[in-house]
Amino acid sequence: MTSLECPVPYTENERLLLGHGAGGRLTAELLESLVLPSFGPREGPLEDAALLPGSGHLVMSTDTFVVSPLFFPGGDIGSLAVHGTVNDLAMRGARPVALSVALLLEEGLELTELKAVLRSLGEAAQEAGVPVITGDTKVVGRGAADKVFITTTGVGRLLPGLSVSAAGARPGDAVLLSGPIGLHGTAVLSTREGLGFEVDIASDTRPLHRPVAALAGLGSGVHALRDPTRGGLAAALNEIARDSGVPVEIDEQALPVPAPVAAACDLLGLDVLHVANEGCMVAFVAPGAAEEALAVLRSLPEGREAVRIGEVPPAGGHPGRVVLRTAVGARRVMDMPVGEQLPRIC
């Protein structure tokens, strides 16, 4: 007679998904459950750039760029690596001072392609007025990477009179957007898949530190800034609403969506609110400073299409929730994106 034994229960290890890097809900879960606890306790919200301990005025940000393809209408991985880190510093209210660049290169990459990427990176840094002062280069075997991955780290100095934070939005604030949405994500996807939209759509990648410096003249009237990159406008607004503990209401009809972008999103079944951008920013400003802030933004090339898209209700609403007032007069919750609509776009 054989004895019955309970078998060891089978458990499958959880695995990483592309959506964990999309900047939405899966990314937040990965950070909160695994990444951040590994580094010890932290204070305050996650910002695009962090204040250097003991400095009082210096901030630092780092980002890795894995965009595919390397070149797309309006930009490439080299210029994007500069713009992305410069913008992260700017969203913390800092003027960029210097950059570090690390290159992860795949064996077999054509040197002419690498030269074009590096030339673009160098030109973007010079145009932004930010020197590349240090870096690193590694080469891995074929198949261990996809041509070029770039990590840029930036150091910036806080602008006098400007104190912005993802937790800084206040009741009554006006919500401003510096330009059209959806251009970067649809341009990259169209080029990658050969969809043909690249004839009409080019990425909006560009540095935003100059319009932020101009907004610094409004001083305490500017409360929060965020560039809607991974996860798009929906993710940026949800992050600020969550960290500030305020409701946010957005007018769908006020959103600047270029016609070719709207057509591409309709055809591909994409939500333009979740599509990445690389050259516009969201600003939460005091109601009395809204018109002046719009005038400041519109006076610069980077913000000439700036619009007011919503507000933080002065009273009522659900803290942390973003609501979209639709074109037909209905209201719906603008959720944080869950996974990855468009992988490998930044």
Automatic annotation (TrEMBL):
Gene3D superfamilies: PurM-like C-terminal domain, PurM-like, N-terminal domain. Residues 47-157 form the PurM-like N-terminal domain. Residues 170-314 form the PurM-like C-terminal domain. It holds the Pfam family AIRS. Coiled coil: none annotated. Signal peptide: none annotated. Belongs to the HypE family. This is Hydrogenase expression/formation protein HypE. It comes from Streptomyces luteireticuli.
